[in-house]
Amino acid sequence: MEHIGYRKFLKKVQQRVVPEIGELLPNFPVGTIAQLGLMPVVEEDSRS
Amino acid sequence: MIVAKDVRKNYGMVATPQTVALSGVDLHIHRGEMVSIMGPSGCGKSTLLYTLSGIEPTDSGEIWFDKQAIHQMSEKDVSALRLTSMGFVYQQYNLIPVLNVIDNVALPLISQGAQRSAAHKAAKAALEDVMLSDKLKAMPHELSGGQAQRVAIARAIVHNPCVIWADEPTGALDTVTSEAIVTLLRKINTDRQVTMVIVTHDPLVASATDRVIRMKDGRLTDSVERDRVEGTGG
User: Strands B34-38 and B60-65, how do they pair?
Assistant: First the structure.
């Protein structure tokens, strides 16, 4: 797999392409995406 | 530092036969102590780790972490406590496959709202501590099992937690690699005075810890301190 960085990672979580952080790491709550301190990704990207 | 009082937990629906996971556990772990929890499969040792760390709620009893009552905290508050004060190491490393090593390690700091530059600086330092400075840009699938676990350990220490919880940290590793991981965990415990609680089947791991706690059928059956200078307590 290629490195995609936090923003694309979060976008893929939002698109349910990859699991939530909390599903992989039980110490992080499901919904950690809202806690990542990054700007939310609102636009859709159909190429991803 | 970590205190459990009469902690009980069952799995299963009320109307169906329940599995008793924890049956009145009392425990005191001191600051800076390195403790292993051993016992047969299904004895409740992983459940104990997850309840002590606030991931799994208890059915009854008390859990205190640095005088904070985890059993009375909201899920949001206990999540925040985990994020800032605890580190976790899992058997299967649980690295995020689409992030490179340095971004995996920086994740706890990014999650706390740290700037990327500061988070990466701390992540580089943590990766130096686990002797993986040459793997900053590597992807998880490019790492050996031992390297992946060292990345996971770097992620567990990057935010200077008070305690590290490890669930079978050598369970997926060969003997030689396991020895290296145990040595690393011991060094981190000594150098950083971070409390460590390790669930393990591995006598090699247990032999490196200050105290071995044994469990059976949801109860603590034995607690043996080893020949090592004890922590300051509290």
Answer: unpaired
